[in-house]
User: Fold these one by one.
Assistant:
Number 1:
Amino acid sequence: DEKNPAVWFLDHNYVETMRDMFKKINAKEKVIGWYHNGPKLRSSDLQINELFKRYTPNPVLVVVDVQPKEIGLPTDAYFAVEEIHDDGTAATKTFEHVPTEIGAEEAEEIGVEHLLRDIKDNSTGTLATRISHQFSSLRGLSERLADIRAYLQKVLEGGLPVNSEIIQNLQDIFNLLPNLTIPEDAAAFTVQTNDQYALIYVSAMARSIIALHDLINNKIENREAERMADEKENEAKNASAAAVTDAAAGQTKAQTEETDMASK
């Protein structure tokens, strides 16, 4: 309950049904925990976590932020641990944060890739979407570089010990970077970048021209359809008026004949 966090409900039937369905697909998979959409821990999480011990001895809780505002993994994982107090009071349980990593098997990656191809935002064009994705990627890269810089600065100042594995990974990253001090490489990157920008510009211009042509053709077709509808309406009105005139003329002729007969 949003108003009263102490009121909550866990659907055991749903959990067990989903577990049985997953077992039919892959018998090797096991339930290791549960998740909710957070975005932060809730007061009732410890109680729900105790109920999930029916399915796994030490369940893991994953908090998924469905509307992330920062670049990075929108997940946080926790284990329930007992916290022992120095004052001699009874131990209490609390959540301890653990690092997380999201991975997928090859079949899952292919399925997600095909799913993302079918998801299109009609409000934005392809070019705008690509630029938005590139901007998000660059922003994420900037944050990662800031983290690396902060870590190296702390190691240099003696605040953190030197980790040979991290240093080796950083060295591998630097070795993969292109050497732009070589004039030939710099010129090649410049030419490739210009070619890509030219292709994007020409594609955007062609798309705009095609869209304008479609708009003009659509207006011409609508105008022609309106003209045809007006002509049919006028023809219907003329036919109706002619029928009324013929009926009036026939009625007048009949009255004249009746008058003549009466005069004779």
Number 2:
Amino acid sequence: MPPPPLPQETEPAWPIPTFNFRIEDLAHPGAKLFLDNVRPDVALREAVVTVCSWLYTPETVPTNVQCVTLVLRPMPGVAHTFGSPTHKEIHFSLDHIRNSASRARDEILGVLTHEMVHCYQYNGLGKCPGGLIEGIADWVRLNAKLGPPHWKREAGDKWDAGYQATAYFLEWLENRYGDGSIRELNGLMKETEYDNHIFKDVTGRKISKLWIIYKDSLVDNHGL
């Protein structure tokens, strides 16, 4: 008799919200680029799964987000997210999509992943530094292999400078102190006001010391 089939791992049953989609200028070149490169329902679902996978477990994932609306429109900048605990709205610049034509698919998926983090992450009851909020979002994007080519691993002036500067610092923390470290940091911001002490709770070291060690590691490795 042939051996029994190996059990297959099933994807956790992450809570997938309802998705809405709106384009405010169908004639914009960015709209065609978006539709040529991604299916909005699939891209949004993949972003949710990525965010849940990196920041939560099936037991801890929040279930409050019921609906995410993606709006593509001409506007300055890249994207922003706002809304209520149950309904989130992501506005994504058609101009930015047009300007990213040479790598449109990766940029679209990267931005959607970043913005989806803002739909689900905790913020220390509104007291978390903006740089850490943005850094966690780019840390998830980095782990999804969707970082743009211009990102560089460099310390900058402070640990919470935000975006990729903080994302690479968080990546170093995760590698040094173990898988799930950033998930734990996020979890500690669920029900209490943000305090820098959460870094010591997770790593045993103050954030100021962690930043020094990280910067020294960049010098030792020439930024690699």
